[in-house]
Amino acid sequence: MEEARTMQVDLGNLMAFDSGHDFPSLPSSREELVEKCLEKGTELVQAIADALFNLPSTEDVDGPIVKLPQPTTKLPREKHLPKPKPPTKWELFAKAKGIKNRKKDKIVYDEQTGTWKRRYGYDRVNDDKDIPILEAKATDEVGSDPFAERQADKKKRVEKQNKNRLQNLKQAATAHALPSHIQLAATALPITGTQAAPKKVSKEELGNVAGLAATATASGGKFDKKLLGEKKPKHEQKHRKFLPVAEGTGQGSQEKEQTDRVLNKLLAKNSHEILNVNKAVTMYNVKKEKKRSKQKRDDSSNSSKLKPQKKVQKKPIKNGSATKGYAKKGSDTKGSATKGSAKKGSAKKGKSK
Amino acid sequence: MMKIKTPKKGRIKRELEKRAPKLVETGRKTLILQGTKTSGLLNSVLTEIYHLKKESSVRYTRRNDNVRPFESGGETSLEFFSQKTDCSTFVFGSHSKKRPDNLIIGRMYDHHIYDLVEVGVENFKSMKSFVYDKKLAPKMGSKPFIAFIGEGFESVEELKHLKEVLLELFRGEVVENLNLAGIDRAYVCTALSSNRVLFTHCALRLKKSGTIVPRMELVEAGPSMDLVLRRHRFPNDGLRKEAMKTAADKPKKKEKNVSRDAIQGKIGKVYIPDQQLGDMNLPNKAKGVKRERREAKMNKQANGHASKKQKAGSD
Hints:
Chain A is mainly alpha-helical and about 350 residues long. Chain A has eight helices and seven strands; from the N terminus they run ββαββαββαβααααα.
């Protein structure tokens, strides 16, 4: 078969390119054109098949399998070439010393129990928690816990290893050779000065920020242009409320009510007999909690047995004024409650807005 | 303070490793999507391309208004999609009065646009309109034969570019071993003029011939269309150079001056240049040296006086 035209066959891609042929005149009808194209195409495909079937093939269940050569057309890569990883600190050290990596088995024989156990993981060979007795050495302090010390040691070793790993990864990151499944994330911004980490701002706080800025305007941000999706502020930004200039009939005078409120507030503060039950209860609870937490702190630091027993003393109950809003203990609580309830109405009026 | 983030599941780790850049690359995935407006014809073109490349492509069916590959800001969405789906080739279809039935075929390098070619589709005939023996129908995922006819593909830059892009789109997986029984499709691209290419997909019928090589017969099966070249964007040279780099390109540097011996192992020679001991500077100015120099100086002066005296004496 003579090939008058130039034909390039890229067997790796199963592609054939005939650059010699040129359509001198396009055939008039589309079908003829298509036929001609197919004819030429058949020729090219036949040429590829010739080369393909002449390759050495191995017989397989499904059919003959041939080994294709490498494609000759150079095509651009889709991703950059991976950069080689810089050697880690241990790798450098091992290379310098000539230490070779030895393959370790997963199952190791445990002498203590006489069975085969894992080298790491659940139910492993040299587990710290399996040691029942640790003999005291002469160098040990009196009162130190050797088991806790062993645990602390292990923790330190693990932390050191993590730090070294992080350093190695940082080095790889600077060389742009970080492994694909690892990402380094900054947990906190570097701060000069204080050691405190910046607090994470919550969603609510972010929502309030716009409201904070709005208080700078005289109208309290009511007429500010809002962004898409921004909601109205939750409560009025205006902190001063003025009475209306002209008042309607049917209601009591608002001015009178306002002055009444102020007066009652003043009286309530200086009166000894009015009791706000809610406030009293809250104050009592807070005091109790503080005491409890203090006791807890003290208990954890000292052993409870060595501490002298504190006598819980009750305050002497005085009649009348001295309590001043503190709840009276014992049998008097009921009495004070009833007393308070008689004045409760006025007290409530005084305390509420 | 830095934290090391690793995936908690092995499956995710394996996915990430699949997407990582490799020394030798396997086939590219294609993203097929559409723009603000498409025509019925274009829709069928896109779906047929998707069917031809079922295993290695992703089809987005929604409209994407902000994708404009030829404009400077309009490629960010495409790059984002490419990153999310790990597709480095895309086929973007759109229809407008100025550019009816428009297809933009583009490639990416490192999830950034590498090159683009814009073609218009004319004389489209869908797969369903062809009637042929169903036994010949090509199976999904089989490796195709590709034939390019016409000298335009070599002489015209844009056609050359289009040839490369079409090859990359349709060649399928790069495999080493091929089963000869599974050959059943061929793509034929003919350059009809300097800006028109006839593209058609055919099924192969292998007929018995006298030799091992069977006689090929092409039966038109799949979609057939005319591609009219419109705009294009070539890759810039620096990027092209970088993308064409392969691992085998840089030969391993030969270690000079190193030889191996059976007995001694690795041997190298150490060459020391000649040392001029007289010209060399002493490394540290020891106090003794200074004193010696002072004494030498004094002695010289004393000798000088003595010689003068001698001279005077002689005279």
